[in-house]
């Protein structure tokens, strides 16, 4: 008999190991309580309760009883009663999913206030203004979040009062004015909903919990989960916590801090503090906060205590911690902790520094960074000079360089991005409703807020360039413009450059230069703390990874660069790229040949050119494997466009006979679906001499390198094999040519012959195909197309956005491998192939070979190598190392 499900846990009952049940925030509160930190007491409603509610539309029957029991315990601990008319207990109700979703779900503060208790808290605190400010906050939050009232109605009402009083900030309104606003807010609720704001504290609490559950499926939460690949079925926990107040005067305040700089990773406390403020004020950026160091002047004792607590938390979590706190009349309270979101730069520096300090070992340091972050660090940066005077300077909240046209709202950013235009979203401060625009934009720029504002936290999590708190900018979203202190006017549609590393914004498009990390990776030489951290992580990844990392490279130049970035060979050299440009005429001559003699003449002209190409690539990769794929695309791709030819002939009075020949050839070779037509091995078997020419070029290049003292390791790959008979015929022809060159030159040649597995039939019959193959290379781009029955280019331009939006795809199957379908074919082929040939080498050469998540899959199914574009090699090396470590531990990325 199973024990009944428990839906409510007091903070003292939990711990960080219960994050799946208590959510990240609840687990953090429980852990801090366990550590003895000053945490306002409370309890957590579990994610399991949320799942029941989302599935049935009703809370579990036991939840009301458990909540009432936990609330009674909280009241005993605090010595106050929720909503009492004299010195009432007030509570906050906050969401807390397993994975951090900053600002994406709902929060309601000051639950328990009503027309009676507001006077009680005014008397108990001795501050009437504080009481009415808290009450109007509750009605505003509750009305919008729980009762569905348009938030702008409240904002317009309070703006009218400030205008009448000729003040700019909410804190400039006195108690009498706030009491009037409170009554006006209640009237707005009555008018918009047909019901009154509830006076019963128990009803407030119940409805607030339900509203947080509902916010799991809110638009902004769904958009964020989709962007961050967070599962839809996790649900959120709800944290009910005794309120402590930072808006009780100058000896009170609220703040957010990090144990290290989340933008750069530098050691030290980094954060913001806002005196006489409550709850969300710092994160929302509605008032400009003070640097955290100001707390040391305002309240030295609280500052020292906070420093001690931050040190405790970082040592306990062994990572960067993000902490929210409140000072209530001089007493420090810790309200939340979590492992903080950080930029790519900070991720590498923090992991490196913690390893150097002995807090974590090299394995854990490697697991804490990833290939996506490394790729971001390789992006170019602005090439600025002292003459490049910025429009404004702000807080460098999330580094990088971005250029785009200015837009002033989320919808416009989304619209322009859909049209292919790069944008910079400019706001006074962002709110969770701006998330779609933040995703669409290249950068975010705000005139308010700091490193802990909503814009900063979300942008860092997404790897977006962000500058916050550019106070020199006066942002006017209505007029769709901003003005600088010097009077420069920037309209929507004007181009700006945002430097998230320096915290500057510039008019126009600044030139870009290579990143320090990119240069360090090519030279292998560190130039500062960041590059030292990156090179250290890669060195350790190389020492632990099983997967080799090779490059997709078609020229000697690409091969040289790939090798400098750590490639261990070439997994895909596409020979068709060697037929473009000036050589196209020779290919045309081969196609137009009327007899074998003319075709052989054209092929003989191509032979030395191909040999020269292969020699250059084998030289660049001397001693490392180079997998050369014989010609793959249909021949019509080397001929002019059919429509262009027809138009040119129709418009010319005396047409060129050559054009007529070309048009006839194009029409003769026309296929309804050429990507499933005469290409790959079919082309090699159907066009006499084509395969032999290419194999001879490879063989003669190998001979040339051997005679020069080199160590060439050429491998010949037959593309698009669907049946063992195709590979048998192609291998026979390949071996014949290799034998000819061997006999002609007296040179021993060792060129493995394999095939590209890119058709479902090839994967399903891999056991038979392996009888004639020395290696398999999975062409996962075509394997994905043929398995899904879709054209990548057409699908991505038509219905992919719809499929992603509706959740049919969580990510494009061309970006990350479809493990259930395409991945299963790969796994079957590897198992079947090795059952026949235990020495069969297997790799992947589609762009999936550079995708972090896909690399982990390829490691698990036992491939020998991945191959990707040169730029992605460092990230692939890093992920291959992480895959090996996470496979050993059975763990996952803790962040």
For the biggest sheet, the summary is: 8 strands, mixed
| Helical content (DSSP H or I, runs of 4+) | 40-55%
**How large, in whole angstroms, is the Cα Rg?**
33 Å
Beta strand count? 31
Question: Going across the major beta sheet, what is the strand order?
Answer: 12-22-21-14-15-16-17-13
Strand content: 15-25%
What does it look like?
47% of the residues lie in helices and 17% in strands. It has 895 residues and is α/β, with parallel strands linked by helices. Helix 27 (690-707) packs across helix 28. The two termini are 36 Å apart. The mean pLDDT is 90.
Features:
895 residues, alpha/beta, eight-stranded mixed sheet, eight-stranded parallel beta barrel, 36 helices, 47% helix, elongated
SSE blueprint and pairings:
Elements: E1 8-10, H1 19-35, E2 42-45, H2 47-56, H3 61-78, E3 91-97, E4 107-111, H4 117-125, H5 128-146, H6 151-165, H7 175-193, H8 201-215, H9 219-228, E5 236-242, E6 253-260, E7 267-275, H10 281-284, E8 290-291, H11 293-298, H12 300-317, E9 321-328, E10 331-339, H13 344-356, H14 362-367, H15 371-377, E11 381-382, E12 392-393, E13 395-398, E14 401-407, H16 410-418, E15 423-427, H17 435-440, E16 443-446, H18 454-462, E17 465-468, E18 474-476, E19 481-483, E20 489-491, E21 495-499, E22 504-507, E23 512-513, H19 516-523, H20 529-544, E24 548-552, H21 556-564, E25 570-574, H22 584-592, H23 596-620, E26 625-629, H24 642-651, H25 657-669, H26 681-686, H27 690-707, E27 713-718, H28 724-745, E28 753-757, H29 760-764, H30 766-769, E29 775-778, H31 780-788, H32 792-797, H33 800-805, H34 822-836, E30 841-844, H35 852-860, E31 865-868, H36 873-889
Parallel strand pairs: 14-15, 15-16, 16-17, 24-25, 24-31, 25-26, 26-27, 27-28, 28-29, 29-30, 30-31
Antiparallel strand pairs: 1-2, 2-5, 3-4, 3-5, 6-7, 6-9, 7-8, 9-10, 11-23, 12-22, 13-17, 14-21, 18-19, 19-20, 21-22
Helix pairs in contact: 4-5, 5-7, 6-7, 13-15, 13-20, 15-36, 19-20, 20-36, 21-23, 22-23, 23-27, 24-25, 27-28, 35-36
